[in-house]
Specification:
This protein is an all-alpha fold. It contains 5 helices and no strands. It is 63% helix and 0% strand. Helix 2 runs antiparallel to helix 3 and helix 3 runs antiparallel to helix 4.
Length: 126
């Protein structure tokens, strides 16, 4: 009986533990962009945006994915939300490249909106 109990303990102690999942990082959205898999990449990026709700970086990245997928409305909604988050932070806490991206992309959205209303054109690509 003791031998059976020992075997059960040994067998249960050798059970494989699942490998730990890699932590989601804020820069995961654009790790490997493949144009033929944009829908899947946007879904993956949605999880990154959800994991970092106060970080404008993932929204900036998802803007690019939406833009590549020709979804201007979603792209501009993301960049406007990212810009609002960036304004709520101290300027020193944001990367200079991120601030530049946000300003330029938000301007592209504004120009696209005014052209679409006035001339029937869409906004320029980033």
């Amino acid at each position: 009986m003791a031998a059976l109990a020992g075997l059960l303990l040994l067998a249960s102690g050798c059970a494989e533990e699942p490998l730990p999942q890699r932590q989601v990082r804020s820069d995961d959205c654009l790790q490997t962009v493949q144009l033929d898999q944009l829908a899947e990449q946007i879904r993956r990026c949605n999880a990154v945006v959800a994991a970092f709700p106060t970080n404008p970086g993932p929204l900036n990245d998802r803007y690019l994915l939406h833009s590549l997928a020709d979804n201007e409305i979603a792209a501009c909604a993301d960049i406007n939300r990212a810009a609002a988050l960036a304004r709520s932070k101290s300027p020193a806490s944001l990367d200079l490249q991120l601030r530049t991206d946000l300003n330029l992309r938000q301007q592209l959205c504004k120009e696209g909106d005014s052209k679409a209303r006035g001339e029937g054109q869409t906004r320029p690509k980033p």
